[in-house]
């Protein structure tokens, strides 16, 4: 499974490059401004609402669909999926209509300090992005269905194509119509992605709209019951997000944009890993658990766990050693001040470390879902969010904007440790694996950080970033062979395939 995960990761990396370039263009055209703050608030509000309501369904759908397909057959699984699809669409349409009618209800929650021109602009932007709620949920359902049919790469390719279209629209429209270009870009990408996904469902002959007259509301009950333990943590999680945005809006104009710019890198890379967990790891582990294959369960989990750990090591190493170079390349050509750039650079470093604990939280949580222990994932998910809320409210006046990555790291690290104790199999083996890879992470990051402080001094951020990438590769490869990690076999195979002369 490592090779398939690696291919999926590369596809996601390509899309990530487009996303980062889009972020750079946003900084160039909009900087840290009121308009950008309002766009981030409005869009995040809709995303938060989507996650709070449908996030549990989207996260658990693949595992439940595979169970239905194995136990009752494909036709029954699709019939129940049809019911779920129609049910979610009707509820979403009602919610979109309410948001368009009463946007001030949401505005009062996410930005209580906004009034006058600020409030007017926020209400307008909420109405602009509200319909994206429906399109986004539809794409999530179709991606989940295709993943359940082992169609992993096509949704990623479709997403990559839609990202390129979105990027081109920003380039051509931003100088002409300002911040609204982001809305045109966002909607164009969503709608194109949805059309491509529908086309793929048709090509694979998945009978998703067959026998619509047999649809029953009761068919959604198994999905609802399976996802029910996750509604509370998702709801509390979105409350935590709203509180964070609300606190940030009181810290000054541009702070929300600074957080958005700095957190995006870690979030994008975590999104890449999360997609691997949900599209590949979760279905495989669910099948191994149903088959009562304990050795297979631990083996498949370790393969992805170790590979993902090295990817997270890269995130922490690069953004700890030279965050300033990365930020300078992406944002310095815009209207952002030097003080704001320094703040974004520091925040980027701290968020890269929070990515380590979030990674552990996500992958252990996925394994618990696949082992029918989702209630523990749900409970400790709530624990993490409550810790974040408490720390943010108690300490933001003392720590300022830096409290957000700190609370994120602490809360998810604690929850990951508590969930680890509930793993069904292989806890002793996985404990040794975790300790080994944590030590490697610390060693790699410490070496790169010390070298950048005491030795490396390039005037060009491009040279700094390239050199650090090379340095990370050298250090990591040496670690792979020194500690005899399984991932060294991938390098050996690549070497034998491409560099050793074939007889």
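^ Assign residues to that structure.
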């Amino acid at each position: 499974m490592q090779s398939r995960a690696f291919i999926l990761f590369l596809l996601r990396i390509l899309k990530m490059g487009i996303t980062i370039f889009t972020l750079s263009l946003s900084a160039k055209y909009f900087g840290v401004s009121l308009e950008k703050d309002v766009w981030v608030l409005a869009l995040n509000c809709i995303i938060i609402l989507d996650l709070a309501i449908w996030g549990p369904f989207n996260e658990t759908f693949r595992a439940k669909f595979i169970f239905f397909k194995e136990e009752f057959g494909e036709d029954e699984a699709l019939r129940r999926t049809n019911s779920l699809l129609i049910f979610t669409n009707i509820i979403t349409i009602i919610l979109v209509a309410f948001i368009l009618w009463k946007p001030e209800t949401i505005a009062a929650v996410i930005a209580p300090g906004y009034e006058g021109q600020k409030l007017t602009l926020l209400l307008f932007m909420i109405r602009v992005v509200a319909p994206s709620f429906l399109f986004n949920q539809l794409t999530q359902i179709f991606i989940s269905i295709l993943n359940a049919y082992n169609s992993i790469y096509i949704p990623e390719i479709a997403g990559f194509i839609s990202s390129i279209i979105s990027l081109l629209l920003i380039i051509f429209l931003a100088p002409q119509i300002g911040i609204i270009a982001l809305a045109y870009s966002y909607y164009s990408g969503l709608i194109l992605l949805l059309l491509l996904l529908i086309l793929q469902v048709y090509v694979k002959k998945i009978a998703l709209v067959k026998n619509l007259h047999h649809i029953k509301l009761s068919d959604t009950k198994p999905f609802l019951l399976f996802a029910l333990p996750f509604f509370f943590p998702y709801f509390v999680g979105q409350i935590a997000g709203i509180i964070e945005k609300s606190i940030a809006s009181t810290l000054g104009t541009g702070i929300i944009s600074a957080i958005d710019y700095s957190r995006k890198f870690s979030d994008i890379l975590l999104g890449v890993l999360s997609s691997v967990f949900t599209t590949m790891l979760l279905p495989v582990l669910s099948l191994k658990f149903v088959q009562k294959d304990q050795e297979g369960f631990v083996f498949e989990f370790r393969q992805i766990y170790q590979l993902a750990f090295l990817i997270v090591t890269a995130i922490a190493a690069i953004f700890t050693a030279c965050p300033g170079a990365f930020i300078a390349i992406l944002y310095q050509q815009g209207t952002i001040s030097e003080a704001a750039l320094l703040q974004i650079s520091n925040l980027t470093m701290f968020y890269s470390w929070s990515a380590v604990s979030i990674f552990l939280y996500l992958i252990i949580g996925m394994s618990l879902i696949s082992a029918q222990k989702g209630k523990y994932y749900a409970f400790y998910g709530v624990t993490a969010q409550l810790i974040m809320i408490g720390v943010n409210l108690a300490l933001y006046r003392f720590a300022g904007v830096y409290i957000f990555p700190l609370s994120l790291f602490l809360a998810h690290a604690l929850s990951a440790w508590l969930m680890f104790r509930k793993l069904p199999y292989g806890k002793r083996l996985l404990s040794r694996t975790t300790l080994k890879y944590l030590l490697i992470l610390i060693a790699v990051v410490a070496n790169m950080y010390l070298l950048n402080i005491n030795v490396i001094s390039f005037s060009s951020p491009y040279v700094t970033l390239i050199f650090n990438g090379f340095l990370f590769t050298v250090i990591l490869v040496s670690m792979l062979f020194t500690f005899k990690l399984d991932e060294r076999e991938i390098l050996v195979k690549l070497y034998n395939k491409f560099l050793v002369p074939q007889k």
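The first helix runs from residue 2 to 30.
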